[in-house]
Amino acid sequence: MNGQELAKRIAVRRGSKPTPGTIYPALKDLFSRNLIEKTSEGRQVIYRLTTAGREGLLEACQYFYRAFGDIFEDSKCGGLTGQ
Q1: Contact 20/45 with Cβ under 8 angstroms?
Q2: 66: burial class by Cβ within 10 Å (0-12, 13-18, 19+)?
Q3: Tens of pLDDT, residues 1-39
Q4: Which runs of consecutive H residues, i.e. helices, occur in the chain?
Q5: In the beta sheet, which residues pair with residue 48?
Q6: Rounded distance, CA 56 to CA 78, Å?
Q7: What is the reported pTM?
Q8: How far is it, in rounded angstroms, from Cα 69 to Cα 76?
Q9: CA-to-CA dists, residue 7 to 2, 21, 68, angstroms
Q10: Cα–Cα distance for residue pair 48/36, rounded to 1 Å
Q11: What is the rounded CA–CA span in Å between residue 81 and residue 57?
Q12: Residue 51's Cα: distance from chain center in Å?
């Protein structure tokens, strides 16, 4: 996705759209840590998770589930295994 697509997706999930002053520094940080890569498609910059980014995301999800999974089970969210 490009930066605008990411901002729109976040807005759908969070209820408010992050500003460019929020999203682009975050993308720059993720890029500097080799968690995302960027390619140019015409005038747009497209961001994708790297292998390290996918592994980090999986680790974060698993940690979150270990820490808070019982909340999901108690609320009958079901299907969330963190893996």
Answers
A1: no
A2: exposed
A3: 999 999 999 999 999 999 999 999 999 999 999 999 999
A4: 3-14, 20-32, 51-74
A5: 37
A6: 23
A7: 0.73
A8: 11
A9: 9, 11, 26
A10: 5
A11: 14
A12: 14
